[in-house]
Amino acid sequence: MSPCQGASMTRRPLNPLFWTLAQIGSRVRSSAPAGVEDPPLQLPDPTTLRVPTRHGDVDVLVQRPAQPQSWTSKHPPVVVHLHGGGFVNRNPAQDRHIARHLAAHLGAVVLLPDYDTAPTVHYPVAEEEAVDVVDWATAAGEEHGWDGQRLVLSGVSAGAKLSLNTCQQLHQAGRPRPLAAVLVVPVTDAVRTDRTSPTARPAISPLVQRFVGWAYFPDTARRREPLASPRLDPSLSEAMPPTLVLTAEHDTLATEGGELADVLRAGDVEVVHHQYPGVDHGFIGDDTALATVRDALERMVTFFRPHLGEPDAGENTTTRQTPPAAASDS
Question: Per the record's keyword annotation, is Kinase included, yes or no (predicted)?
Fold first, then answer.
């Protein structure tokens, strides 16, 4: 089967009512939180690349670090960050504050794929697009000005699951895994729709859980596949690099995030797990929890930095080379 044929079999017509319900049901945020400080160095505006996948081209938002950069013979590392949205919302720009912070403080190029979501597609389109973008980022670094061999993954909620899925697929194919991963409020189980929270009105209610299952995982038999529910993958630890897991006390998904950290740790994966008290699922973009947002961003940088490597000790950081332009940036 050709990639185009595969795409046509998984895409569905867009229903306006469905789209409206998706926006309401998942409480999507449409922008990065206000109040997060700008990086100390002015960053270039993000550009967009069109990246080929087996399901067609995907737009990827590209946030480059400030100029001049701290490389001489090296290109900067690259972060592939996958946004959340319950597999029904497409808005990578909601995580621009994350991309800007990582670009500024790691000196990395940050890629935010605009992967396909329900209702136009269903499982496993987003999972396959995610790994295809990572494969492309690994191979295309020389052309576009980053080091594809120094690649790390991050993701929020559904995007954290896609980060897990990317590592699973790379492991299954026998290809190198990312150097590290950060998973913020990860979802690991497509089977359960009965999770509960200690708060009266959680962001992810049973209704939202059922809606996401119906929307993106319509074939209930496939929800038990390891790619749909990484929690059920017996070889997950073998696929994962060093991992930071960030969870929220009031989040319906907090328990499975903690269980994920325990499973990876038991499988000899380097794991750091931190749970934030008093916040719910969407804390990473919450205007009312800016101290928590800032702390999470700093934890991401601190965790990634040693895995990406530092500039050589003798490097002159005042005389730096300008990276080659990305030919397809727009």
Answer: no
